[in-house]
Design a protein that fits this description.
SBP, alpha/beta, Probable sugar-binding periplasmic protein, 4-stranded mixed sheet, 414 residues, signal, 6-stranded mixed sheet, 14% strand, Bact_solute-bd_prot1, 21 helices
């Protein structure tokens, strides 16, 4: 449990940001748009809502299924003059245009008081701090390349260890297939295909090649034999997914692992929320590993709330109170424990977190393993173009050479 002094200081800061004791004013109403709608996600966001209400606010939940649909709703509301108090975006370049167009309020005073510059990882800060101002409140750190496996399925296939190399992983998929288990639980949607590819890219291609391609847009790197081999290895997974994979939602793929119908899923750590909702325990009912070997790259991604522009004094107070509450240590732990993420700060009580999250927190202390999520490095348009390239390669009889050329054009912006 957190020390009383830490909890007290967090509450005091929340009251200071809101401008008056909660008892002395009407609740600060905050309409919040987000896309957390699965079982585990709903349980997680409820922690933020309860914490905000206890701090003197009134959380008005507006969940919209699907990230693209949720962001579109936010954009339409802003353009239509009916903006929410806060809205979820990924910790990425997704909201950069809003900042440049002057459509967001900053939360500088909350960030300064909370010492965000000191407690948050550089990759997160680079996404939320633009031209010296804080335009978003990060709420979690996700790693989109975790490997989750069913202990029961692994036992059925006679697998007793976690793979230390890509070759060992492929061999284990073969054993699962031979045992009559769906080897890889997969959802054939463009974003799932993209994060699976990026996981393989980071593990097989390595951090240097990953950054040359996504950060530097190095055409020689894209057209290199090493990158071609990444494409080849990625396509090998096609032989280990089931016929029902096209169009499958990620949480339905997770359910296959939960039920022992599938052996392993490559997915972000938000999948743990589904295991938790099914009352499964990490290390007992299912296993998790963030890559192959002790120095595998750890891709950093996440979610954040942005605060649409408003001049209404109470709305601004609500935005600042919300930014403070969702980044506070207690709310961070309560949310992360149910969401499957890790907190955006290291000064938290880890006892409520599972072994996967504690492993993630430990890895985050090693900056050499941290690798920015591709959406932190590429614009939404470029990301969309790359998704199109990869889904075409995954679903069609396309050669790796042709996919390589298409990838080069997309990353160049043609």
């Amino acid at each position: 449990m957190l020390k009383a002094t830490k909890v007290g200081s967090a509450i005091a800061l929340a009251l200071a940001v809101s401008g008056a004791p909660a008892q002395a004013q009407a609740p600060l109403k905050a309409t919040v748009i987000h896309w957390w709608t699965s079982g585990g996600e709903s349980a997680a966001v409820k922690q933020f809502a309860e914490a905000y209400n206890k701090a003197g606010g009134q959380w008005v939940d507006q969940a919209v299924a699907g990230a693209d649909q949720s962001r579109a709703t936010t954009i339409n509301r802003i353009v239509g003059g009916n903006a929410p108090t806060a809205a979820q975006f990924n910790t990425s370049k997704q909201f950069r245009d809003f900042v440049e167009q002057g459509l967001l309020n900053n939360v500088d005073d909350v960030a300064i008081a909370g010492k965000w510059d000191q407690i948050m990882p550089p990759s997160i800060l680079q996404a939320i701090k633009i031209s010296g101002h804080f335009y978003a409140a990060p709420v979690d750190i996700h790693m989109p390349a975790w490997f989750f496996y069913s202990k029961a399925a692994y036992k059925k296939a006679g697998i007793t260890n976690e793979p230390q190399t890509w070759e060992e992983f492929l061999a284990q998929l073969g054993k699962l297939k031979a045992a009559g288990v769906v080897p890889l639980a997969f959802g054939g949607q463009v974003w799932q295909e993209k994060i699976t590819f990026d996981a393989i890219f980071a593990m097989v291609g390595g951090s240097d090649l990953y950054l040359k391609v996504y950060r530097d847009r190095d055409q020689k790197a894209v057209m290199s034999p090493a990158f071609k081999q990444v494409l080849v290895e990625f396509k090998k997974l096609k032989g280990f997914v089931d016929a029902g994979s096209p169009g499958r939602n990620w949480n339905d793929a997770t359910a296959m692992v939960v039920q022992g119908k599938a052996g392993v899923q490559i997915m972000g750590d938000w999948a743990k929320g589904e295991f938790a909702a099914a009352k499964q325990v990490a290390g007992k009912d299912f296993g998790c590993y963030p890559g192959f070997g002790p120095k595998s790259p750890y891709i950093v991604a996440g979610d954040a709330f942005v605060f649409p522009k408003t001049n209404d004094a109470n709305a601004i107070k609500a935005q600042k109170l919300l930014a403070n509450v969702v980044t506070s240590p207690t709310a961070q732990v309560a949310f992360a424990a149910r969401k499957g993420a890790i907190p955006i700060r290291g000064d938290v009580d880890e006892s409520q977190l599972d072994i996967c999250a504690r492993q993630g927190l430990a890895i985050m202390k090693d900056k050499s393993r941290q690798l920015p999520n591709t959406e932190m490095l590429a614009s939404p348009d470029t990301t969309g173009a790359l998704q199109d390239v990869l889904t075409s390669y995954w679903n069609k009889n396309q050669s790796p050479e042709d996919a390589q050329k298409a990838f080069a054009r997309a990353i160049k912006g043609e």
